[in-house]
Specification:
heterodimer, A: 263 residues, alpha/beta, D-Maltodextrin-Binding Protein, domain 2, ten-stranded mixed β-sheet, 9 helices, elongated, B: 306 residues, mainly alpha, MetI-like fold, 2 domains, two-stranded antiparallel sheet, 1% strand
């Protein structure tokens, strides 16, 4: 259903673009909501340089990105997973950025550092009170993403053996996770490093803080790659866009917007 | 809707004058079939929706087994666990809670508006209440997240995003439905009933709850049924305020996931068996709504008959 919709939107985009005088080549990229805002920025800059190519960016989640690239509904799929699922083997994958997953708590929370085992305990429901972690005597509110989220699957893969507690609150985007943690003094969640702000705080993991430097140095443990996926080797306008994202200029944009460049 | 068993026979169609000729007759026939088609379109789309959901969902239920689908409490599609029992319970509780809040408030509001306030005031207030119905549900959800959830967390404990928050938000959302239909029902009660009661020496309140409410009962029950339908089916506001944890709630402060929330949260990426499971969830929702409506309608018929 979603794919049909996607195809329809692409179709409309092509018609609209074809309608305005000069013929423009249309490229559609769909998938990861964490990478979407960055992709939009990159597409804007790319189109300023290459006015005869129209790039459309759509969300939908990593799982949808892989499906869309496989079915051809979008030429480029965007996925941010530690490990691509088996069906993505048929696609050509290019790593264009890396993204740290920050473990976030409320600003009022005195806990500053968590070990991976502690994070696992919290999300498994074994550690249920902040007291056990050196915080106040309050029950922990675990906030997680829905099962199809790339952020969640990456998080669970790196932390390992996470069987999410049934008490966990489920939110369906990085943004709503952030709001929930900002509002709830006892909450803990995780979100893309690029979406951190001063209203909540990221704890250090194993003593390492979630900053660009630590990720680039390979010290911060919760990192996942961002892939652009194409069916077969990218050609034409598709290749031009992917090349631009990988170019020094594209990588600089990625870095300036808060993500971590691939190289 | 209104059956008329007392009418002796359907009046014969008036004899058609021949003055119009064949062309007029053709136009008449055309118009007749066009309107017939329009009238059936609602029924047909209901049928198509039902068929589509059943076609996608029923094979799954047969494969997994009705018992393992409805009464298992583990929902983890990635390892093939498809128990929706916690969500059925959650949907029922949230709806019940919304009705406990919305129905008394709505009916009381309708009584107040029709009986204890001058007509001119009601003409101002009623449209304002109806405007409530036009507020997008995402805004109700937003208010719930920003105001209600923190309030519950700070005063009652728990995560705040809870069954209680969902019930309160839905209770407010159904108010326009309950109030405007109840107001119409009460206004339809003949004025002489009230006058008669007052003349017999009943106080204003006695005549309202002994005479007017009794006479308007079926309309008021209808308003509650419609409100229930909205509460069961509401998705966006509910997703935002109930926290969406898949578990059987032990208190009103627990986070829950309703059937509608489950479909909306997971439809985006579900494939294969998981996708079928969501359609099957839709089948259950469909059946739950049908059962609720039939029960309420039966109750209404019995009361109206007595």
């Amino acid at each position: 259903m979603r794919q049909t919709l996607l195809a329809l939107v692409c179709g409309v985009a092509i018609v609209v673009n074809g309608g305005c005088g000069k013929q423009r080549t249309a490229v559609t990229a769909a998938g990861s909501t964490a990478f979407q805002p960055f992709a939009e920025k990159l597409a804007e800059q790319f189109m300023a340089k290459q006015p005869d190519i129209a790039v459309t960016i759509q969300g939908g989640g990593s799982a949808l990105g892989i499906q869309a690239a496989l079915s051809g509904a979008a030429q480029i799929g965007m996925a941010d997973l530690v490990q691509l699922p088996p069906e993505a083997q048929a696609l050509t994958a290019v790593v264009v950025a890396r993204d740290g997953i920050a473990v976030v708590v409320n600003n009022a929370n005195p806990v500053k550092n968590l070990a991976i085992e502690q994070i696992r305990g919290i999300f498994n429901g074994k550690i249920r009170n902040w007291k056990e972690l050196g915080g106040a005597d309050h029950a922990i509110t675990v906030v997680s993403r829905e099962a199809g989220s790339g952020t969640r699957s990456s998080f669970e893969k790196i932390v390992k053996d996470v069987a999410l507690t049934k008490d966990a609150i489920i939110q369906d985007s990085n943004g709503t996770i952030r709001e929930t943690v900002i509002m709830d003094a006892n909450a803990i969640g995780y979100l893309s490093h690029g979406l951190l702000n001063e209203k909540l705080k990221a704890v250090t993991v194993q003593g390492t803080s979630c900053t660009t430097e630590e990720v680039v140095a390979g010290r911060y443990p919760l990192v996942r790659p961002v892939y652009l996926l194409t069916k077969g080797e990218p050609t034409g306008a598709c290749k031009a866009f992917i090349d631009y994202v990988c170019s020094a200029e594209g990588q600089k944009t990625i870095k300036d917007s808060g993500l971590i460049p691939a190289k | 809707m209104q059956d008329t068993p007392n009418t002796p026979a359907q009046p014969k169609r008036p004899v058609r004058r021949v003055t119009g000729g064949v062309a007029t007759w053709c136009r008449d026939q055309l118009a007749r079939y066009v309107f017939l088609a329009v009238a059936f379109s609602a029924t047909v789309s209901l049928l198509l929706i039902a068929l589509f959901i059943l076609k996608e969902g029923v094979p799954f239920i047969i494969k997994i087994g009705l018992k393992d689908f409805l009464f298992a409490s583990e929902w983890d599609p990635s390892v093939g666990k498809f128990g929706i029992y916690p969500m059925i319970i959650a949907s029922l509780w949230v709806t019940l809670g919304a009705m406990l809040i919305g129905a008394p408030l709505g009916v009381a509001g309708a009584i107040f508006l029709t009986q204890f306030v001058p007509r001119s005031v009601m003409r101002i207030i009623k449209p304002m209440i109806e405007l409530l119905a036009g507020i997008p549900s995402v805004l109700y959800g937003f208010m719930g997240v920003m105001v209600l959830a923190p309030f519950i967390r700070n005063h009652f404990g728990g995560p705040g995003l809870s069954l209680l928050a969902g019930a309160i938000i839905l209770g407010i959302m159904v108010l326009p439905t309950v109030i405007s239909i109840s107001v119409d029902a009460i206004n339809a009660v003949p004025r002489t009933y009230l006058e008669g009661a007052l003349a017999l020496g009943a106080t204003r309140w006695q005549s309202v709850h002994m005479v007017i409410l009794k006479a308007a009962r079926s309309g008021i029950i209808a308003s509650v049924i419609l409100a229930m339908g909205r509460a069961v089916g509401e998705t966006m506001a509910v997703i935002m305020v109930v926290g969406n944890a898949v578990k059987i709630p032990h208190s009103a402060l627990d986070s829950v996931r309703t059937l509608t929330a489950n479909i909306a949260l997971e439809m985006g990426y579900a494939t294969g068996l998981h996708r079928q499971a969501l359609f099957a969830t839709g089948v259950v929702l469909f059946v739950v709504v049908m059962i609720l409506n039939s029960l309420a309608m039966a109750a209404m018929k019995r009361k109206a008959g007595s």
